[in-house]
Amino acid sequence: MSRSRLLYSLVLVLLVVIPFMASHAQKAMGKKVPVATEPEGDKETPPAAESKPLAPWQTLSGDGEPTTIRAVRFGASSRSPMSIVKRGNLAITEGDMVVGSYEHVMNAISKESVIRDPYLKWPKVDGKVVVPYKVHPSLPRQAQAALQQAIAEFNAKTCVRLIPQTREKDFVTVFFGQGCYSYVGNIHNGEQELSLGQGCEFKGTAVHELMHALGFYHEQSRPDRDQFITINFQNIGRGMESQFDVCRDCTTQDIPYEYASIMHYGAQAFTNNGRDTMVPKQRGARIAEPYDKPGLTALDVKKLHKLYQC
Ligand SMILES: [Zn+2]
Fold it and tell me: Which of 108, 214, 270, 297 has a C-alpha 20 to 30 A away from that of 263?
């Protein structure tokens, strides 16, 4: 082989090998890039300053327009439409409920498979509903205090016992993520995350997110909600109308609709002009954000006890 021919072959080989190696290096590096579900602020100290309360829907910064999927909700027997927004690698519905990883949800839809097991409750031990939890080191002090107040409320008023996780397989990790959100129910997947991010460090918010983790949806998506509130669609941000979809197949548990429920969003949820998006049909009634509420109402406790048969 002539010298120039050898040189030519060498160049050809390098031309093929270098991009190949580069793409592999990128993939390997890509694996190390933290995904959005992973706690943020691991290394940085989270802000300690007083933060302005944010409602869960205000922390929603979805990537693009919502997509409507059909999913089986906790406690429901059939699939109903659910509007999801992509946030990082999570699929979120109604501002603060995690449906699953976006990729998983999208794959499940294309395969027409069911998104979730509809009956995922926490186990009962000696008549108490046991929810093991872990506090991630990323959680700022203020959020930790809010979480502890919420836990004290559950432990005092209900049959739910939030206990520090030791050997239990399924548990909730509370961390400082992007916004306030939780999975609905026990997803039976080992560790499941509950985020109390910036603006979420309030007792009411912590109680609200823990109620999601216990298996509850929003009060304003109950099948009977149109008898109690008027939705002003003209005040809702574009593309966000579907966040007010009613869960037709969800049960009301034969418990009255309640504006004061910790699971009811505030009157301005998803507003795009500062005006109310939800108007109570009952005169003089006020609908506050979860962070503005003292905690569980008597009816919230009743719902919980009915679901878990306490
Ligand atoms: Zn919520």
Answer: 108
